[in-house]
Amino acid sequence: MKVQYLLTFMTIGLSMAHSGRHMKRNDGCSTICTAEFKPVCGQGSDGTSKTFSNLCQLKAANCDKSSSSFVLLREGEC
């Protein structure tokens, strides 16, 4: 019975330690954006302009390492 309690607590402890590693990520890339339509115009590092649904969507695009990096040009569509 004591062994069973020990194994249970070890399992819970390891599970909490493992999940804590994922929670430490604080780079803004794990943000879930709302569907609010408040368009912003962003300019990519390659010089192209793109309209995003909102500022959160622009920031989320910057998390995707395969696309160019965008900076906010102005509020509203491009």
TrEMBL record:
It comes from the Eukaryota. It comes from Trichophyton soudanense CBS 452.61. Residues 23-78 form the Kazal-like domain. Coiled coil: none annotated. The lineage of its organism: Eukaryota, Fungi, Dikarya, Ascomycota, Pezizomycotina. This is Kazal-like domain-containing protein. Residues 1-17 form the signal peptide. Keywords: Signal. CDD domains: KAZAL_FS. SMART domains: KAZAL. The keyword Secreted does not apply. PROSITE patterns: KAZAL_2.
